[in-house]
Every structure is written in C-alpha cells, then in structure tokens.
Amino acid sequence: MFKINQPIGTNTMTQKETIKTIKDAYSSLRVLNNIDWKSYREDIYNLEKQYEKNHRNYCNGREFNITVDLSAKLFVVQHIASALKGTRHEVKSYIHLKQSIFLAESLVINYEDKIKEALKDFDLNQLCNLDYSILIEKKVA
C-alpha cells in the first residue's frame, strides 16, 4: 500500500486511528536500528523527544493531549516520510532546522530501499500530513 501520489490533505482518520498509525509506522522503522552498529531510529527519536520537552517547557502550564513519546514518534515518522517524497534541505539550512530532519534525509538517501520496504503498508502522504497541532489540543467538554 506504499502510496506516493495520493492527494494531499485527504486525512480522514480519527484521533485513535492517527495514534495507531503513528505507533505502527514508528515500529516499522525499527529496521533503522539494525543496519549497522548505530540505532538510527532511536537517534532521531531522542532528538525529537528533547525538542518536544524543550517546547513544552517553553509553553509553561499548557496541557497537551498527547505524550512527549507520541509526539517524538510522530515527527520521526513525518520527517522520514517527507524525505521519501523527496524533501531535501541545503547544508546552509542546518543552523535553522532541527537536526532530526537532516538525519532523516540522510537515512533515506543511504537506505531508501529498506525504508520503503518498512513503510510499504502505509500511505506516504498520510504520514507526511500527520497534524501535531490537532493531536495536542485538549478536548473541552
């Protein structure tokens, strides 16, 4: 089901389905921990986890609807999916963007076939369009 040419913005998943998709796609990327002696998936995850913790510290007192763990996994999946679709940043952008984006792009350049195989059951556009802002919002009863 590896789809690249789906229309963008057609995400009709429920929040529960979105969370399951994030967890399943992240789990499928475990292949990145078994390529050589480095755990690349965990490296990106740890970067994203720290970014999210810093973000939440900056948003003093705000309540979030998802955990730091799920947020980090969302961005790991999203960055890798985006890189699979061809997103590439120039080196001069390194000081302005998250290091995890460059790591995701490098992994796709070096291990594209393995990553495509790992994510073959997912809609790539859907992974690229996962919406952090909708997931974090607390529902008001």
Question: Mind explaining what this structure looks like?
Answer:
This protein is mainly α. It is built from 6 helices and no strands. The longest helix has 20 residues, at 99-118. The radius of gyration is 15 Å and the shape is globular. The model is unreliable at 1-10 (pLDDT under 50).
Give a quick precis of the structure.
By secondary structure, the protein is mostly helical. It has helices spanning 15-28, 40-58, 68-84, 99-118, 124-128, 132-136. It has one domain.
Features:
141 residues; mainly alpha; 6 helices; 0% strand; disordered N terminus
List the helices and strands and how they pair.
Elements: H1 15-28, H2 40-58, H3 68-84, H4 99-118, H5 124-128, H6 132-136
Helix pairs in contact: 1-3, 2-3, 2-4, 3-4
Our Rg estimate from Cα atoms comes to 15 Å
- In percent terms, what proportion of residues is strand? under 5%
Quaternary form:
single chain
Q: Could you list the spans in which at least 5 consecutive residues all have pLDDT below 50?
A: 1-10
How many domains?
A: 1
Question: Please, what is the average pLDDT?
Answer: 85
- The number of E-state strands comes to 0
N/C terminus separation: 37 Å
Helix content: 55-70%
Instruction: Return the structural class.
Output: mainly alpha
The biggest sheet, with number of strands, parallel, antiparallel or mixed sense and barrel status, is:
none
What sort of overall outline do the alpha carbons produce when their principal axes are compared?
globular
Number of helices: 6
Q: What is the ordering of alpha helices and beta strands?
A: HHHHHH
